[in-house]
Design a protein that fits this description.
alpha/beta, Rossmann fold, Helicase, Ruva Protein, domain 3, 4 domains, 5-stranded parallel β-sheet, 16 strands, 44% helix, binds adenosine-5'-triphosphate, transcription regulation, transcription, ATP-binding
Length: 462
Amino acid sequence: MSRILIVEDEAIIRSALKRLLERHDHRVSEAGSVAEALTLEPRGFDLVISDLRLPGEPGTELIARAAPVPVLIMTSYASMRSAVEALKLGAVDYVAKPFDHDELLETVARVLHRQAAQQGEPPDITEPGGSRQPMIGNCPAMQVVYTRIRKAAPADVTVLIQGESGTGKELVARALHQQSRRAQAPLICVNCAAIPETLIESELFGHEKGAFTGASAARTGLVEAADGGTLFLDEIGELPLDAQARLLRVLQEGEIRKIGSVETRHVDVRLIAATHRDLQSLSKTGEFRLDLYYRLNVMQIDLPALREREDDILEIADVLLGKACQRHERDRLRLSRAARRTIRDYPWPGNVRELENALERGVILAEGHLIHPDDLGLAPTLQPPGRSPAPAPVRDGQEEQETGDEEDLSLEDYFQHFVLEHQDQMSETELAQKLGISRKCLWERRQRLGIPRKKSPRRSTG
Ligand SMILES: Nc1ncnc2c1ncn2[C@@H]1O[C@H](COP(=O)(O)OP(=O)(O)OP(=O)(O)O)[C@@H](O)[C@H]1O
């Protein structure tokens, strides 16, 4: 069942439309103007159907104020030009009045269907520099994350984001803020683990002059700086108990009191918290307040570790590699086939951030137009097994054609390592046999790769 908001000033049309939609299993609310519609929180609906001409502001005003909820505009045949204008402003579609029932139901079904299909799509995020990028990755676990973001963002509730370090928790917080009605107000991000325990309360809640030694002037805290907007508290599990108590008060009463002050001040802040720790377990050992945990956990978003996002890893690597090349003003580098295999098989304990850093190293260290596994500088103890040079598999002609250039080059890596490591112990015939190629081919490749045959070591004579 979908929730639809009808905004129409003519009561007869409004109730006819309501009955029609209710007969088709939709739950319908009504408003007679944009102002009235806004009191009903249009972002909480699945679709807004609004007349264009209304007393007060026109229906198109709702397009931005209901976003990302789609707005379907109703207009009379006489004002088709305004319908086109409404589409330009971002209306999802329009219906001409008087409307044909089937046509209207069909349009509504199409819009709702499209909306449902988009729920699992990555949201766009505006980065601090102003550029707009979608979150990368489309594996099923991330689609669940995207759907959660779309639903939680407009609901103005507290959200707890859980996931290992570097999985993108801050990115999700940004997406939630940017898709909320607070998008134009500040988003203040605080990493609780990065602020010394002795300073965190005054950083968050502010202090009066002389509140403690060194407080030479009054200071506004970060919670107050986020007034009207969103406060993102990363690593909230690290927040000391006293600060937890103050935070609980902000959530319960919407009030803040600076350190050393007797006065309270009202603040309107949406809290988004993130942690890589299990807050419920921390509450059992008394390190985290259970009542605060319940306050935070109105909506929960769980981010998968990168190693669980097998289908996404290479896609993320390609996008991040492109960005690293831009940053370092290098022509577009590519990952060798072996580097792609390493990236796919590596466990990535530091998740996307670690991948980002490895690619940055790769871009700096790569000598040709390809990045090889060594350029990534990954921890050897975590490297997947079987990475030591081994004979290249015998390839038939078809595989050779399919794999192309890049495969050749990574096999050349293999070839080079294998030859250099074994040429002192093996004859050319043995080397060629192990590599699955002819002696002639071995000779040609040696020439091409600049590893000519050494003066053969005397293996038999004494
Ligand atoms: N899905 C994604 N698409 C694009 N970039 C991503 C994605 N996930 C993470 N990143 C990038 O990875 C880096 C780490 O992400 P972020 O800071 O959001 O992680 P985090 O979980 O908050 O880490 P920490 O807990 O260590 O603070 C950032 O540069 C971010 O842009």
